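This section describes the prediction task in plain terms. A model, or a person checking by hand, is given the sequence of a single protein chain and must write out its three-dimensional structure as a string of tokens. No templates, partner chains or ligands are provided. The sample shown here is typical of the held-out split.
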Amino acid sequence: MSVRINRNEILGHFDIGAVTESYGNGHINDTFLVTMPRYILQRINTSIFRNPEELMENIENVTGFLREKLREAGEDFERGTLQVVPAKDGGSFYKVDDDNVFRVYRFVEGTKSIENSKTPKDLYEAGVGFGHFQKLLADFPVEKLHETIQDFHHTPKRIEALREAIRQDRAGRAGSVQREIDFALENASWADCVVKGMEAGRIPVRVTHNDTKINNILFDRDTGKAVCVIDLDTVMPGSMLYDFGDALRIGGSSAAEDETDLDKVWFEEGAFEAFAKGYLSEMRETLTEAEMALLPLSVKLMTYECGIRFLTDYLNGDTYFKIHREHHNLDRARNQFKLVADIGNKEARLAQLVGD
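The expected answer:
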């Protein structure tokens, strides 16, 4: 049964303000701006994040750690990380029922978000922002973090899900996409490299953000410099290669991820260079040789993983990703696979850029 929610009544449980308006373009949580003074009110999407207690424990632990690191470094700890506003009962959120769980952050003043810029300057600053985030968290006790989405970047399990979708063929579509299926399965042989590396201890387990789109960084409104990493719901244990690769899966593409004219889809080496320069300006001394060597492949890996997720959903009848037209998920999969092929052709050059 749906419950009608009065946002101002919810705010009364945080004792902070009274006026709200919709804010931002997030795809997962409902977000509102609270005025007098300014805060961010969010309804957590509990259909995806089913354990808000663990989710908010992760966020409180990570933001508290970042705040102290920023303070010790003499940096702006008021703006450099999100600040959770506790509810009146002392908790990190207020729960109406299982479907309506709310949290509040302090609004980060003097900042702006960038929805989808691919200029070298913005990509460089995004690299600095995500790199600084992971540098500050390099000695965070990662065993304290909960896995908010199980096996989120476990690529071999994503491949198994694809094989199962092919076997079941619930929507009767497998016969019409054999070329895409063949491409996906032919590339499966190398796609376990990060998972196996972590299992063997060759690749460190670090705090990872897992959604490193450029619109998940706030930039200073005047200088354009990265200020604060936001959207911390998917902060979990993982490999930094997931974050580096996923940032460039989007930032390095010449087109939107659902562009249907594949002649317009290729990977931009200049975008890789700009983001990598920013990222490595922060993380160069922290990364291992194994991580450095896999930076180019990480972009191909995250693009491949996303492509097989789109293809799996298409074969299952479009049950996970929102679609806005017929064959939308198939268009997305084809787009990502075109990028995978192009990144593969450019890997040697990308490795040279990392070395430079």
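For orientation: The longest helix spans residues 328-355.
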